[in-house]
Amino acid sequence: MTKFAGKDTFHLRVKVHLFHVLRINKMLSCAGADRLQTGMRGAFGKTQGVCARVAIGHVLLFVHCKDGNSHHAQEALRRAKLKFHGRQKIIVISKWGFTKFNRTDYVRWKSENKILPDSMNAKLLGCHGDIYTSYPNLVLMTGDCVLFLSGLMKTPLVVSGTNTCLSDKWPVEVHWI
């Protein structure tokens, strides 16, 4: 991946950790070894290595890169899966970075200021909290009147509607107070 795509063009994240310790109880199998070993008495053993317990369907690795380097990432993962026991699948997903949102939804919500960046992830803002800071352009419908709150114009407007939250891009009938 570094050779073909470059060292700064991808982000690799390992999702499993090697917490399970493997131990071995060494036994001698030559003649006269019965005086050197004690069988199963105190058979806790010495550490031999570590491994990870993984269930079927568990994600082992994430590689995030741009679309131009996608084929390099797939080839790198194909070569890497030969080093692991068992059967692995390479799945290409269309999420935005490390978030749980699809690319099209993320771009649309970002333009509507409905997504708040949060470290490597992002939060989808709901219809609760401080309206002026959360949604600069929002139509808040309560009962039979609607307040249109804009980040530039803080003048409330009245509209007929139902209990819901709509974007300001929806066609609604607006009346000045």
Automatic annotation (TrEMBL):
<dbReference type="InterPro" id="IPR047873">
    <property type="entry name" value="Ribosomal_uL16"/>
</dbReference>
<dbReference type="Pfam" id="PF00252">
    <property type="entry name" value="Ribosomal_L16"/>
</dbReference>
<keyword id="KW-0689">Ribosomal protein</keyword>
<dbReference type="InterPro" id="IPR001197">
    <property type="entry name" value="Ribosomal_uL16_euk_arch"/>
</dbReference>
<dbReference type="GO" id="GO:0006412">
    <property type="term" value="P:translation"/>
</dbReference>
<comment type="similarity">
    <text>Belongs to the universal ribosomal protein uL16 family.</text>
</comment>
<dbReference type="InterPro" id="IPR016180">
    <property type="entry name" value="Ribosomal_uL16_dom"/>
</dbReference>
<dbReference type="GO" id="GO:0005840">
    <property type="term" value="C:ribosome"/>
</dbReference>
<dbReference type="InterPro" id="IPR036920">
    <property type="entry name" value="Ribosomal_uL16_sf"/>
</dbReference>
<keyword id="KW-0687">Ribonucleoprotein</keyword>
<dbReference type="GO" id="GO:1990904">
    <property type="term" value="C:ribonucleoprotein complex"/>
</dbReference>
<dbReference type="GO" id="GO:0003735">
    <property type="term" value="F:structural constituent of ribosome"/>
</dbReference>
<protein>
    <submittedName>
        <fullName>60S ribosomal protein l10</fullName>
    </submittedName>
</protein>
